[in-house]
Amino acid sequence: MLNESLKEHLIESLKKNVRYDGRKLTEFRPVVVEYDISKSAEGSARVKIGDTEVLAGVKLSVEKPYPDTPEHGSLVVGVELLPLSSPEFEAGPPSIDAIEIARVVDRGIREAKAIDTKQLCIVIGEKIWTVCIDICTINDAGNLLDAAGLAALAALQNARFPFYDGTGIDYKTKTDKKLPLTKLPIGVTVFKIGNKHLVDPLVDEQFVYDARLTVSTTPDGKLCALQKGGDKPLSLEEIEQMIDLAIEKAHELREHLQDEDN
Q1: Pairing between strand 169-178 and 127-139?
Q2: For residue 7, is it left (φ>0), alpha (ψ between -120 and 50) or beta?
Q3: Average pLDDT of each block of 10 consecutive residues along the chain (262 residues)?
Q4: Sequence-separated (6 or more) residues with CB below 8 Å from residue 256
Q5: Exposure string over 113-128, b if 16+ CB within 10 A, otherwise e
Q6: What pLDDT was estimated at residue 258?
Q7: Which end of the chain has a smaller Cβ tally under 10 Å, C or N?
Q8: CA angle 184, 190, 193 (to 5 degrees)
Q9: Cβ 146 vs Cβ 253: under 8 Å
Q10: Can you spell out the DSSP letters for the chain?
């Protein structure tokens, strides 16, 4: 009942193109990306979108490759929704929301082939580098999906290989060798409330959305992954509109990352 009343109030405001915090429907809150925030990780970053704050760290380990990809390294993404970041989160095994965020971030990176996994091979069929991205929430004020994706990309940019002599890894010694990144896919989630589309929702807006679409695109605007959420269906016209908006916003978010050549 509370959500229905909130939804009616939100829809009336959105009809006037007014949001609780005064933003336009297609406007992000201020975005801040900080690099190298952890000395124990091979790469790390902090992303703030308004009051939402997310940390990401990259760890590199030498593992045995999967039998069907003997010449390729691997990628693992995990998300922890810390109880300190929201009263909605509980300690324990990963929740459905945490698993979904991890999968969306993973899919965007994997489908864009953002990492040249063949360059992660050390010995074919025997040793490869595994890239593990750990993401945790510090404060949830809405839009964790986009914040987590941006933090993961920044941490990948920041990562440096530890010293490896062929038998053991010296994690205390970082080399100058970066991860073999080819392109960075930016994910933007567009929400539908009533007949309005908006980005970067506040928590209250997330409680009452009808549908959402997370769109991951490469720097040239090519689609590499889509993830639909919410109970209501989307028409083809709505999907096209949401994709166009996501591509536009992705270009803005990309400006907050370091140049890919750095």
Answers
A1: unpaired
A2: alpha
A3: 71 82 94 96 98 98 96 97 95 94 97 97 97 98 98 98 95 96 96 94 91 96 94 96 97 89 46
A4: 31, 32, 33, 150
A5: ebbebeebbeeeeebb
A6: 87
A7: N
A8: 170
A9: yes
A10: -HHHHHHHHHHHHHHTT--TTS--TT-PPPEEEEE---SSSSEEEEEEETTEEEEEEEEEEEEPPPTT-TT--EEEEEEE--GGG-TT--SSSPPHHHHHHHHHHHHHHHHTT-B-GGGGEEETTTEEEEEEEEEEEEE-SS-HHHHHHHHHHHHHHH-EEEEE-SS-EEEEEEEEEEP-B---PEEEEEEEETTEEEES--HHHHHT-SEEEEEEE-TT--EEEEEEESSS---HHHHHHHHHHHHHHHHHHHTTSPPTT-
Under 8 Å CB-to-CB from 189, ≥6 apart: which residues?
143, 145, 146, 199, 212, 213, 214, 215, 246
Kindly report whether the global pTM for this prediction surpasses the value 0.85.
Answer: yes
Q: What is the identity of the amino acid at 138?
A: I
Beta bridge partners of 33: 47
pLDDT at 165: 94
Task: Give residue 108's identity as a one-letter amino acid code.
Answer: G
Residue 49 structure tokens: 């979108």
CA separation (Å) from 88 to 38, 52, 53, 175? 27, 14, 16, 40
Instruction: Please give the pLDDT value at position 262.
Output: 43
Domains in the chain, ordered, with CATH? 2-254 (3.30.230.70)
Residue with token string 């839009």: 143
What six digits make up the tokens of 51?
A: 């009051």
Instruction: Read off the amino acid at residue 33.
Output: V
Q: Give the C-alpha separation, 154 to 256, whole Å.
A: 9
